[in-house]
Design brief:
The chain has 202 residues and is of the alpha/beta class. It has helices at 9-18, 26-39, 41-57, 74-77, 92-100, 128-135, 151-165, 189-197; strands at 59-60, 67-68, 82-89, 106-110, 142-145, 170-173, 200-201.
Length: 202
Protein backbone atom coordinates (compact mmCIF):
# COMPACT_ATOMS: atom_id res chain seq x y z
CA UNK A 1 0.00 0.00 0.00
CA UNK A 2 1.43 3.41 -1.04
CA UNK A 3 1.63 6.04 1.66
CA UNK A 4 0.95 9.60 0.49
CA UNK A 5 2.91 12.19 2.44
CA UNK A 6 0.77 15.02 3.78
CA UNK A 7 1.54 18.32 2.10
CA UNK A 8 2.60 21.24 4.31
CA UNK A 9 -0.24 23.73 4.74
CA UNK A 10 1.50 26.59 2.84
CA UNK A 11 2.15 24.26 -0.12
CA UNK A 12 -1.45 23.06 -0.09
CA UNK A 13 -2.66 26.67 -0.03
CA UNK A 14 -0.47 27.51 -3.03
CA UNK A 15 -1.76 24.53 -5.00
CA UNK A 16 -5.37 25.43 -4.19
CA UNK A 17 -4.73 29.04 -5.26
CA UNK A 18 -3.20 27.97 -8.59
CA UNK A 19 -6.18 25.69 -9.26
CA UNK A 20 -8.36 28.79 -9.47
CA UNK A 21 -6.74 29.68 -12.80
CA UNK A 22 -8.73 28.63 -15.90
CA UNK A 23 -7.70 25.26 -17.30
CA UNK A 24 -5.51 24.42 -14.30
CA UNK A 25 -6.35 21.22 -12.46
CA UNK A 26 -4.84 19.53 -9.43
CA UNK A 27 -1.86 17.96 -11.21
CA UNK A 28 -0.93 21.08 -13.17
CA UNK A 29 -1.27 23.26 -10.09
CA UNK A 30 0.98 20.92 -8.10
CA UNK A 31 3.56 20.89 -10.90
CA UNK A 32 3.57 24.70 -11.01
CA UNK A 33 3.88 24.98 -7.24
CA UNK A 34 6.79 22.53 -7.04
CA UNK A 35 8.54 24.24 -9.96
CA UNK A 36 8.33 27.66 -8.34
CA UNK A 37 9.46 26.43 -4.92
CA UNK A 38 12.22 24.18 -6.20
CA UNK A 39 13.63 26.10 -9.15
CA UNK A 40 12.41 29.71 -9.16
CA UNK A 41 11.99 31.26 -5.72
CA UNK A 42 12.70 34.69 -7.20
CA UNK A 43 9.96 34.14 -9.77
CA UNK A 44 7.59 33.00 -7.01
CA UNK A 45 8.23 36.20 -5.06
CA UNK A 46 7.82 38.29 -8.21
CA UNK A 47 4.52 36.54 -8.99
CA UNK A 48 3.27 37.13 -5.45
CA UNK A 49 4.20 40.82 -5.50
CA UNK A 50 2.71 41.35 -8.98
CA UNK A 51 -0.58 39.77 -7.90
CA UNK A 52 -0.70 41.89 -4.74
CA UNK A 53 0.01 45.03 -6.74
CA UNK A 54 -2.62 44.22 -9.39
CA UNK A 55 -5.28 43.41 -6.80
CA UNK A 56 -4.68 46.60 -4.81
CA UNK A 57 -3.93 49.09 -7.58
CA UNK A 58 -6.30 48.13 -10.39
CA UNK A 59 -9.93 49.19 -10.47
CA UNK A 60 -12.81 49.26 -12.95
CA UNK A 61 -12.91 52.13 -15.40
CA UNK A 62 -16.10 54.10 -14.76
CA UNK A 63 -16.81 54.33 -18.49
CA UNK A 64 -15.85 50.98 -20.03
CA UNK A 65 -15.82 48.77 -16.91
CA UNK A 66 -12.38 47.45 -17.92
CA UNK A 67 -9.28 47.26 -15.76
CA UNK A 68 -7.56 50.56 -15.08
CA UNK A 69 -5.23 52.34 -12.68
CA UNK A 70 -7.44 55.44 -12.80
CA UNK A 71 -11.16 56.23 -12.67
CA UNK A 72 -11.14 56.55 -16.47
CA UNK A 73 -8.73 54.37 -18.43
CA UNK A 74 -6.30 55.77 -20.99
CA UNK A 75 -8.27 54.36 -23.91
CA UNK A 76 -11.57 55.96 -22.83
CA UNK A 77 -9.76 59.25 -22.19
CA UNK A 78 -8.10 59.31 -25.61
CA UNK A 79 -9.44 62.04 -27.94
CA UNK A 80 -8.29 59.93 -30.91
CA UNK A 81 -10.99 57.29 -30.36
CA UNK A 82 -14.34 57.37 -32.20
CA UNK A 83 -16.86 57.93 -29.40
CA UNK A 84 -19.80 57.09 -31.69
CA UNK A 85 -18.84 53.38 -31.67
CA UNK A 86 -19.20 51.21 -28.58
CA UNK A 87 -17.94 47.62 -28.78
CA UNK A 88 -19.25 45.23 -26.12
CA UNK A 89 -16.88 42.41 -25.18
CA UNK A 90 -16.93 39.73 -22.52
CA UNK A 91 -13.46 40.13 -21.04
CA UNK A 92 -10.41 42.43 -21.00
CA UNK A 93 -8.57 39.69 -22.93
CA UNK A 94 -11.17 39.97 -25.73
CA UNK A 95 -10.71 43.75 -25.73
CA UNK A 96 -6.95 43.31 -26.08
CA UNK A 97 -7.40 40.97 -29.04
CA UNK A 98 -9.63 43.45 -30.85
CA UNK A 99 -7.09 46.21 -30.19
CA UNK A 100 -4.35 43.96 -31.59
CA UNK A 101 -6.31 43.70 -34.86
CA UNK A 102 -5.84 47.47 -35.45
CA UNK A 103 -9.20 47.36 -37.21
CA UNK A 104 -11.25 49.26 -34.62
CA UNK A 105 -10.91 52.82 -33.38
CA UNK A 106 -14.03 53.14 -31.25
CA UNK A 107 -14.60 52.66 -27.52
CA UNK A 108 -15.49 49.59 -25.46
CA UNK A 109 -17.67 48.23 -22.73
CA UNK A 110 -16.33 45.16 -20.91
CA UNK A 111 -19.02 42.90 -19.43
CA UNK A 112 -16.54 40.99 -17.23
CA UNK A 113 -18.42 37.79 -17.99
CA UNK A 114 -21.29 36.34 -20.01
CA UNK A 115 -24.76 35.03 -19.35
CA UNK A 116 -24.60 31.38 -18.28
CA UNK A 117 -27.94 30.34 -16.74
CA UNK A 118 -26.71 26.79 -16.02
CA UNK A 119 -23.89 28.26 -13.92
CA UNK A 120 -26.25 30.70 -12.24
CA UNK A 121 -24.87 33.77 -14.04
CA UNK A 122 -27.83 35.96 -14.92
CA UNK A 123 -28.25 39.59 -16.02
CA UNK A 124 -27.96 40.87 -12.44
CA UNK A 125 -24.48 39.34 -12.07
CA UNK A 126 -23.26 41.31 -15.10
CA UNK A 127 -24.76 44.58 -13.84
CA UNK A 128 -26.19 45.28 -17.28
CA UNK A 129 -27.73 48.54 -16.11
CA UNK A 130 -24.19 50.01 -16.35
CA UNK A 131 -24.04 49.04 -20.02
CA UNK A 132 -27.52 50.48 -20.63
CA UNK A 133 -26.43 53.78 -19.11
CA UNK A 134 -23.24 53.81 -21.18
CA UNK A 135 -25.12 53.03 -24.41
CA UNK A 136 -27.58 55.84 -23.62
CA UNK A 137 -24.78 58.41 -24.07
CA UNK A 138 -25.93 60.70 -26.92
CA UNK A 139 -22.50 60.33 -28.57
CA UNK A 140 -23.01 56.58 -29.06
CA UNK A 141 -24.50 55.89 -32.51
CA UNK A 142 -23.69 52.17 -32.87
CA UNK A 143 -23.22 49.33 -30.40
CA UNK A 144 -21.19 46.38 -31.71
CA UNK A 145 -21.97 43.10 -29.95
CA UNK A 146 -18.60 41.34 -29.88
CA UNK A 147 -19.41 38.56 -27.45
CA UNK A 148 -17.86 35.20 -28.24
CA UNK A 149 -19.45 32.74 -30.66
CA UNK A 150 -20.06 30.18 -27.91
CA UNK A 151 -23.53 29.20 -26.71
CA UNK A 152 -23.12 31.54 -23.70
CA UNK A 153 -21.83 34.35 -25.90
CA UNK A 154 -24.73 33.98 -28.32
CA UNK A 155 -27.20 33.96 -25.41
CA UNK A 156 -25.60 37.13 -24.10
CA UNK A 157 -25.71 38.83 -27.52
CA UNK A 158 -29.38 37.90 -27.95
CA UNK A 159 -30.29 39.26 -24.52
CA UNK A 160 -28.35 42.48 -25.12
CA UNK A 161 -29.94 42.96 -28.54
CA UNK A 162 -33.37 42.77 -26.93
CA UNK A 163 -32.46 45.26 -24.19
CA UNK A 164 -30.65 47.72 -26.43
CA UNK A 165 -33.12 47.34 -29.30
CA UNK A 166 -35.77 48.96 -27.13
CA UNK A 167 -33.54 52.01 -26.77
CA UNK A 168 -33.40 52.63 -30.51
CA UNK A 169 -29.63 52.20 -30.71
CA UNK A 170 -28.16 50.79 -33.93
CA UNK A 171 -26.92 47.28 -33.14
CA UNK A 172 -24.40 45.23 -35.11
CA UNK A 173 -22.76 41.86 -34.54
CA UNK A 174 -19.33 40.57 -35.56
CA UNK A 175 -19.41 38.76 -38.90
CA UNK A 176 -19.10 34.98 -38.94
CA UNK A 177 -15.43 35.08 -39.94
CA UNK A 178 -14.92 34.17 -36.29
CA UNK A 179 -15.52 30.39 -36.11
CA UNK A 180 -18.60 29.19 -34.22
CA UNK A 181 -17.76 28.00 -30.73
CA UNK A 182 -14.60 30.10 -30.57
CA UNK A 183 -13.45 32.78 -28.13
CA UNK A 184 -11.92 36.03 -29.36
CA UNK A 185 -8.95 35.59 -27.06
CA UNK A 186 -7.80 32.68 -29.24
CA UNK A 187 -8.67 34.04 -32.70
CA UNK A 188 -5.97 35.60 -34.87
CA UNK A 189 -5.98 39.38 -35.28
CA UNK A 190 -6.63 39.42 -39.05
CA UNK A 191 -9.80 37.33 -38.62
CA UNK A 192 -11.04 39.69 -35.91
CA UNK A 193 -10.30 42.71 -38.12
CA UNK A 194 -12.31 41.16 -40.97
CA UNK A 195 -15.19 40.26 -38.64
CA UNK A 196 -15.31 43.85 -37.40
CA UNK A 197 -15.22 45.31 -40.90
CA UNK A 198 -17.95 42.97 -42.14
CA UNK A 199 -20.17 43.28 -39.05
CA UNK A 200 -23.91 42.97 -39.67
CA UNK A 201 -27.08 44.27 -38.07
CA UNK A 202 -27.85 42.41 -34.86
Amino acid sequence: MTTVLPEPAPLRSLIDALKRLPGVGERTARRMAYHLLQHDLQGAEQLGMALQQAVHELQRCTRCNGLSEDDICALCASPQRDSSLLCVVETPADQNMIEASHGYQGLYYVLMGRLAPIEGVGPAALQLEKLMARAADPEVKEVILATNFTSEGETTAHHLSELLGRRGVRLTRLARGVPAGSELEYVDASTIAWALHERKNA
